[in-house]
Amino acid sequence: MSEPNTMVFMTTAHKKVTIRDVARYAEVSYGTVSRYLNGNDHVSKDAAERIANAIETLQYVPNNAARSLAQQRTQTVCLILQVESAATIMQASVAEAMAAANQALGDAGYQMVTVIANSDEAVHRIAKLIKSDYADGYLLFSLSEDDSLALACKETKRPVVRSEASNRGDLPYPAVDFTNAEGQRDITRFLLNKGRSRLAYVCGPGFSTSAINRLNGFREAMGKFYDDSRVYYADDWEIGSGEMAAVTFQPILDQIDGIVCANDSIAIGVINQLDRFGYRVPDDIAVTGFDDSPLAQMANPKLTTVRQDSYLHGETVAKLLLNIMRGEPVERHFVQLLPTTIVERQSA
Amino acid sequence: MSEPNTMVFMTTAHKKVTIRDVARYAEVSYGTVSRYLNGNDHVSKDAAERIANAIETLQYVPNNAARSLAQQRTQTVCLILQVESAATIMQASVAEAMAAANQALGDAGYQMVTVIANSDEAVHRIAKLIKSDYADGYLLFSLSEDDSLALACKETKRPVVRSEASNRGDLPYPAVDFTNAEGQRDITRFLLNKGRSRLAYVCGPGFSTSAINRLNGFREAMGKFYDDSRVYYADDWEIGSGEMAAVTFQPILDQIDGIVCANDSIAIGVINQLDRFGYRVPDDIAVTGFDDSPLAQMANPKLTTVRQDSYLHGETVAKLLLNIMRGEPVERHFVQLLPTTIVERQSA
DNA sequence: CTGTTAGCGCATTCAG
DNA sequence: CTGAATGCGCTAACAG
Q1: Is the CB of A64 under 7 A from strand C?
Q2: Angle at which helices A310-325 and A92-107 pack, to 10 degrees?
Q3: Whole-angstrom Cα distance, residue B233 to residue B229?
Q4: What is the pLDDT of residues B6-63, one digit of tens each?
Q5: Structural domains of chain B, ranges and CATH numbers in brackets
Q6: Which of A63, A90, A106 sits opposite B90 (nearest CB)?
Q7: In this predicted structure, what is the pLDDT of residue B84?
Q8: B125 closest CB neighbour out of A91, A92, A111
């Protein structure tokens, strides 16, 4: 009744409301509405108000596909999670990095969407997605040996940033990584300084650059005392590998007073198995982890480990991508390194 | 040289290749190419081959936005993960369900994309996304007290399936859930049958339907012996809550021979704290969990718990959504219940 | 079986 | 400051 605009608008709910409906209701042309929506040009205050009102009462929301098509960009960033099994998805470090990236990208006006590549079929489907201009940029979290998605990324013109430095020169994406070598070197020295000199090492899976770098850090700290026969090479990052490592070391366990592990899960496996063998941690043998995952505090004894800030990791990856999307020049092989710190608890 | 088609095609790499380029190269009209791509109508074998060849040599991939716009569907399903903190993202059950859903949806030709709602701003952004016809269907994994996204889903015409039954009648989405009550009832009876009759209970957060259902199961098994003063109501599902529960129960710990917990994390917290108090598990007090998460096997003693098959959960949720998207009629309040089983280990 | 045409909903020129 | 026109890349309906 008191409404100045008494046009009858059945909220049909069947026919979707488009920008034209808004324009008609606001009594402007739909070009003006578009301008209003994108905040670019100037729209008269009067028109703006009517448009705002129309949008509100009509419950108008622009169609995503149409906007993407016309604009040639989607305002989304796609986070690709390439994993070998479900277990990997839930690594605390990954979850935290994802949360951080989601926040940073959201703040910049991008919607982060995550796709999971956990099968050959999924890899193939996602490779296609990448080529179809699905997103304005990509974050590649590959926790797998398979480089197929990294290769697929080469076929898009959109920027890509990796969550881990690669040792492959033919995959030239900027990356963010931790000072893996330095971290492992430092905690090894920490053990050495405590008088533990007969150390063994459990290395992560060979396809992982982090695993290699961490081993290198251990080697550097050990110097001429480095003994490859006291290194166990695991196939994955899981607890089971730690247990197997301890079993393998059993014959020489009496000659050892410390085991440096490639990550927390492995360290927990080692501790569990040492316990079964009757060795006390850290009294008989000290054990260290890497990551400072939530597991580290749940372990018994609590893990002394190398901490890496996963939240910072995700945030940094996201910001690097945003910079590139803004056009900032970044070297194709640029790797930003994040610091690690030692967290002393009970296991060493 | 031997190529029959000697047209010169600079792979300019600057100008993106469209369906028209393919048509020109294959010497057909682009309508035919479209038909070929969508496999619907009949295309002559001859033309099909030339098109296939053109697509291959031109490296053509259809543009996503354009296809979505013309077709009014995106061939994607959006999994919305509403969480309060990063820690929740990585719950093993969620990760496994996601992996399963990804597989099932992928097999059906849909790309699953996950968005994370971990802040008010993200919730708002995603609510808008939902209204913009971003996906053909939605999977709502809400591990939070906040119902705002469930409400936002009411404004889309696309089907929505929830991963957990809701107790709110105004959020009428089909859901898939576990037999929470039965599971907790059965493991309680399992304890009773073992001669443990003086039981306490640690309940999950009140906003969760699962938490309520599990408590009801416990209550049913206890019958007239149910004593609300022996129920601790936790604020979340974490280890810390288990520890606090044990502290709260301390005065009556000597009168208790078993504690049934709402989930595995809480059970571990209870066990840890009982250990600090000098009680032995299960000798003095038996403890049970719920979920059979990976933690259950890492705990010491290993957890006796109620197992729920998270992979099946994700798969079922996805298939239910697929059925609805195919037009199969499903009651708005339909809830599909998945079975739970008791896993006996050491803690009870 | 195939070419032609008209939109899908919106951004973005270009005149006014 | 605003309206009208053109096209983003593709599907689908229609003739042939």
Answers
A1: no
A2: 40
A3: 10
A4: 233 333 345 678 999 998 888 888 888 999 988 766 788 888 888 998 999 988 999 9
A5: 6-70 (1.10.260.40), 76-177+311-337 (3.40.50.2300), 180-309 (3.40.50.2300)
A6: A90
A7: 81
A8: A111
